[in-house]
User: What shape does this take?
Amino acid sequence: MELSEVLLLRHAQRAYTGEKVTDAQLEAILQAGELAPVALGQFEKYHLTVIDNPAILDAIESATATLFHRHGGKMLYGAPTFVLVSAQGEQNADFSSAAIIAHNLALKAVDEGVGFCYIWGAVAAINQTPSVIAKLQLPEGFKPVCGVTLGQIATPYVEKDTDPNRIGITRL
Assistant: This one.
């Protein structure tokens, strides 16, 4: 798939079939994360955790429901896999690099025909729930920053209508 096509198709999915991505799809998506640029080339400051254990996903959902008072609502949208991006450091560059990694994961998911959704709220809940942090087996000094859900989708991606001027631009 050409990049321009991926960009036109890309949108967050919030309805999954429950079927996991294939091993080949997951490896391709993770490789895209590995190819993301990070500030000062400090790749050692980032870590990906692939979570497909239902008990851990349920613990994340429970922590999220508690934090946001959304009992019954699933903020991982029933996705069978959640890739958590963690970072060392709390500077803008650390968070920005983590987001770029997540975006690379998302773009490759579209390329593979896999559903994805950027996840921020559940990450806030993870960070406020020590019992969930303990389940993640993160390397020392790493903090969850953002993530991407992954799973098979029943409805394939379709090109979306977009306003080419939806973001203001100032040219100086």
